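Run: sequence + iron/sulfur cluster -> complex structure.
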Amino acid sequence: MKTALFYKNPKTLLNKGSGFLSDYTHSLNPYTGCSFACSYCYVRQMPVSLFREQPWGTWVDIKQEAATLLRKELQRAKAKGKVTIFMSSATDPYQPIEQKEEVTRSLLKVMAEEPPDFLLVQTRSPLVRRDIDLLQLLQDRVRVSMTVETDLDDIRKHFSPQAPPIQARLKTLQLLAEAGIPTQATIAPVLPSSEAFAHRLRPLVNRVCLDDFYMGDGSGGQRTKKLGIASLYEALGKPEWYEPTAYQLVYERLLRVFDAEEVYVSQKGFAP
Ligand code: SF4
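>> structure
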């Protein structure tokens, strides 16, 4: 689907970390909107989406002059104390248009010069590999959290057909690890997966985060319920995977191949 693009000049970039992100001092969104259009995206139920005429997933606002703004805000925030940043909470920082616009890259350049105490880069896009050079400059102050909700690409296509293929995400985790960048595989939300999933992740990461709609959508699963996600599980003939207990199956499978301290559940897995 074609994404409608809009150029915006935001007044602020760093937002106060709150709620699920209260472990962070700030969140940072280089874009508003998201071309990946995941069916289960909790942002669909937030004002940024509800008050927009176009449906979620069909539009992206590109933030102009973002690097200049971030430099000022970061310097101000650092002067006050510790700065920990979650990028991004309401978009993916590696939108397809990022290839051309380089907004996220420009922000990473600023952060490489003015390092925050910690930066978490949350994405599902292989495009993050383009910025390995900048991520390396942040050393242990950064972690790239790559969403891999399942190891089955047919399942991925069912829930988020516009998002990047699973195999490309796994390959990216491998490349990031080889470049010495701290990473984690983030199984969030837990979607139906195979028994081999944990074994596929084992050679790639030393850290896995697991989350589901009930713990991680900020409303005990109510936002997801409003999105009608249950029908997608029924269409698959896998309603049991929509149960609040479904994540435990994946958790147990992970614990057979990872040490317990390598597997994090929900908010703890996203913490700095
Ligand atoms: S990538 Fe993230 S922000 Fe974008 S639609 Fe999917 S869940 Fe929502």
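>> summary
Residues 4-270 form a domain with the pyruvate-formate lyase- activating enzyme fold (CATH 3.80.30.30). Residues 66-80 form the longest helix (15 residues).
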